[in-house]
Amino acid sequence: MNNIEQNIWGFTEQGEAVLLYTMTNAQGAVVKLSNFGATIVSIEVPDRDGKKADVALGYDDFHSYYGDGPCMGKTVGRFANRIGNARFTLDGVEYHLTANCNGGHHIHGGGIAGFANKIWESRVETDRVVFSLFSPDGDQGYPGDLNAEVVYDWSDDNELEITYYAKSSAPTIVNLTNHSYFNLKGEDQPGAMDQLLQLNAKRYLRYDASCVCTGELIPIEGTPMDFSQPKALSREIDADYEPLRFGSGYDQSWAIEGYEKGKLSEAGILYDPESGRRLRILTTQPSIHIYAGNFMQGCPRSISGHEYGRRAGVAIECQAYPNSPNRPNFPCAVLRPGETYNEKIIFRFETDK
């Protein structure tokens, strides 16, 4: 049973309260959340010896979250990742979205005006925190009034469960995810790329030079994209391989093996041999995107007061296939009136003790 504290972190220029929720489980492990972007601010979990550390990157000032490039810990939407040329066609109608990405593309729902930079309505329900947001028809070019909800549950077994719900008044597209960065050594420690990553994937999604998904799925075997066995992120991150050149390191999506709509499956494992901390990732979504923080330098000051450098953490984003509204061979990301969007991500923190 969680103990949940609610505090005011500050106020926006418009006088809106920015809230900070602290969820503490029976082990004393802590998750902090904010209604600014329905964001994970920090996650404090033990290592193999019981010593706790904050393993999720975050900022020390709520102002730093507004419009930050890394989208640190936030809920991104209406549609995570890139939509090519900032447009898509649904039921014969072409919709034009906000072009907020290099090359005239759309990313993470519209940047400054997207879900990640909104103050969400929030409430505590017994031992969970619920965030809700209304997105009107035409918001960033998307059709339909959309009501979205993000539910955070923190168990006594150090399992953070994130559940996404949405309903729309008209046919639209939805793809919600969390954009947390992890360093299982501790967010203030060097060597984040020494973490071992394993993915339940045999294929990755090919991107073009502007990092827009082409619709092709490429076998990982014999490539630096092969994480079928645990491998340090640093091992091949700078290899001379096209996707790594395009992204200046890992900034790629993988197709989760055995995906079935609505079925919870294991997407991957992140492990730090030094601390013994392990993060097991489960999801109902079809792909997992790994971004190694290749452009993190210069982002706002960390929650512990230091500066984050390049590759200070790895973002793990479970989501629909990027650019899927423009790729009919991809799993459908359309939400119609009367349907409920319902997806889940679980971050399960373990140790090798």
Keywords, separated by commas or semicolons:
nine-stranded antiparallel beta sheet; Beta-galactosidase, Chain A, domain 5; six-stranded antiparallel beta sheet; 353 residues; 1 helix; mainly beta; single chain; 28 strands
Helix-strand blueprint:
Blueprint: E1 3-11, E2 17-24, E3 30-34, E4 39-46, E5 52-54, E6 75-76, E7 82-83, E8 87-90, E9 93-96, E10 106-107, E11 121-125, E12 128-135, E13 146-154, E14 159-168, E15 172-173, E16 177-178, E17 181-182, E18 196-199, E19 201-207, E20 213-219, E21 231-232, H1 242-247, E22 251-256, E23 265-271, E24 277-283, E25 287-291, E26 314-319, E27 334-335, E28 341-351
Antiparallel strand pairs: 1-2, 2-3, 3-4, 4-5, 6-16, 7-10, 8-9, 11-12, 12-13, 13-14, 14-28, 15-27, 17-26, 18-21, 18-23, 19-20, 19-22, 22-25, 23-24, 24-28, 25-26
